[in-house]
Design a protein that fits this description.
It is built from 10 helices and 8 strands. The strands form 2 sheets. Strands 2-1-3-6-7-8 form a 6-stranded parallel beta sheet, with helices on both faces. A two-stranded antiparallel ribbon has the order 4-5.
């Protein structure tokens, strides 16, 4: 028999978190090892129980779930976290995923859907409530569209050099490969960073990798 998924629930509504804990335990594949509504107790619970998944309310007075998650990560406490909320706002979904949440669930979901989401998140999948799928697609399309728009601002030479940055090549290596001067490469890199609104060649390299840019083959 496989081990149960260990879950901590963080929600400021007592009836909700205790009711949810009971429902999740009923399915037999999940063990709720801790529940709290106090943000100040979360660290203690996480360190003590080392859960596989954390269900975290978006609104958690006197703070909020996203801020709390960011604080925990800054302190070195990294856990698979699913935001569980009543908010179906696209902005909240974007903020949660940008902050590192593994998923975004709504409190009106069926218990079986929550169990399925926890199971999938524990396997490393990103999960969102079915009602939020269309908004997630919109977010992804928007991000893709923005990236395409930024790339289109680059000249052919700048796109070529950006692709070499993705390989981790130095300015000197790029200059040799393209048969141009070191200073010219430096100028191109500076222009690339400016046009893409980035601050370092590392960020530029990550951007290039995400966009799957590859250097052309030179004969």
């Amino acid at each position: 028999m496989s081990e149960k998924i260990r879950v901590v629930i963080v929600d400021d509504h007592t009836l909700f978190r205790e009711g949810l804990a009971e429902l999740l335990e009923h399915y037999g594949t999940i063990h709720v090892c801790g529940i709290t509504g106090d943000p100040n107790l979360v660290r203690q619970l996480l360190k003590e129980h080392q859960p596989d998944v954390v269900l975290l309310d978006l609104h958690l007075p006197p703070t909020d779930g996203i801020t709390l998650m960011q604080q925990l990560r800054e302190e070195g406490l990294f856990f698979t976290t699913l935001i569980l909320t009543v908010s179906d706002e696209e902005e909240d979904l974007a903020s949660a995923l940008r902050a590192g949440a593994q998923g975004y669930l709504l409190k009106n979901m069926e218990p079986s859907e929550v169990v399925d989401a926890i199971t999938r998140a524990d396997k490393g999948e990103t999960v969102v409530a079915p009602q939020m799928t269309a908004k997630l697609v919109t977010l992804l399309d928007s991000k893709k569209g923005k990236a395409t728009s930024l790339i289109n601002q680059l000249t052919a030479r700048e796109r070529e050099i950006l692709a070499y940055l993705a390989k981790g090549d130095s300015n000197k290596a790029i200059a040799k490969e393209l048969g141009i001067s070191h200073d010219t490469v430096k100028l191109h890199v500076r222009n690339i960073l400016s046009k893409l609104n980035l601050t370092s060649r590392v960020e530029a390299a990550v951007f290039a990798v995400e966009q799957r840019l590859t250097p052309p083959r030179h004969s």
